[in-house]
Amino acid sequence: MARERVPPADDSRQSPVGAVGKVTVPIPLGGPGEVLVALRGGSEVFAAWCSQPVGRDVRVVVVDAISARSVIVELLPA
Fold it and tell me: pLDDT tens for residues 21-63?
């Protein structure tokens, strides 16, 4: 009996919301920085905003996606 070939699931639209990331470019108050987020089996870079300044190498969690390459983050709770 032949097996039906099923195409792989398209996860290209997987949301980064809830993912943990690390700040690679400090996030200033009112301006974007940059975060590296583990997503889709790899890592992706996003422009990031936060309600407070965040320094480099600080772990954050993505709380909202404002576009395909921009997110809002909060400090990862301890």
Answer: 999 999 999 889 999 999 888 999 999 999 999 999 999 999 9
- In the block, tokens 């301890």 appear at 78
Q: Which residue has the tokens 């870079």?
A: 45
d(CA 70, CA 78): 24
The phi, psi pair for 68, rounded to 5°, reads: -65, -25
Q: Which amino acid type is present at position 65?
A: A
Percent composition of the chain: helix, strand, coil (DSSP 3-state, to 5):
0, 50, 50
Structure tokens at 59: 């772990």
What three-state secondary structure class fits 41?
coil
Model pTM score: 0.80
